[in-house]
Amino acid sequence: MTAEPLERALDHEHLTQPRPFPDALPPVLRTARESDLPELRRLDEEVFQEVAYPGFLLRQLFDMYAEHFLVLDEGGGRLRGYVLAATTTPALGRDSWILGLCVTRDRRRHGFGRELMTEVLARLRRDGIERVRLTVEPANDAAILLYHSLGFVPEGPEAGLRRDYFGPGMDRQVLCLDLTGGR
Question: DSSP string covering 96-125, please?
């Protein structure tokens, strides 16, 4: 697997419900860089608060999965979103997990989450990944709607609901996407 450079300004014309941002250039979708780590930590804490990744873990995830760690860069050192996919080695299967998808509150409902997911899924397909899983908070209707629209379906009994998945009271729904196209 090789990382291809990806830097493109997002075209607001094709995103759902575009609303231009005054005095701002469109964010650039690109692969994360080591220099992004402090800003990624800030972003993760802003969005995920008490369940944010510790800084040391973000560092290790970057080192292991940089090729599938994409960011929305608004310029001036300010990131507005990211997606992170972790993959297994081919010897263990061709699976991947989406370990994080976030967009800052003020940039939600502009299609940026879809854009991040679409790009990372394209990279995973290109790299021969056959199945992608993720977890989502059962009450996060917007995220669930996004994932369903991308083809993810609940995995397992009870519509994928896993009680206490991350600990007491932290239920998650597990969703899965088959990237093989039914082969």
Answer: EEEEEEEE-GGGTTSSHHHHHHHHHHHHHH
Q: Tell me which amino acid residue 165 is.
A: Y
Of 107, 170, 103, give the one whose Cα is nearest residue 143: 103
Distance in angstroms (rounded) separating the CA atoms of residues 163 and 173:
8
> Tokens 């600990």 appear where?
167
Strand partners, 98: 85, 134
Non-local CB neighbours of 162 within 8 Å, separated by 6+ positions: 135, 156, 171, 172, 173, 174
Q: pTM to 2 decimals? A: 0.83
| Interval 57-92: pLDDT, tens | 999 999 999 999 999 998 887 899 999 999 876 656
Tell me, what DSSP letter sits at residue 49?
Answer: G
Q: What is the pLDDT of residues 37-64, one digit of tens each?
A: 999 999 999 999 888 999 999 999 999 9
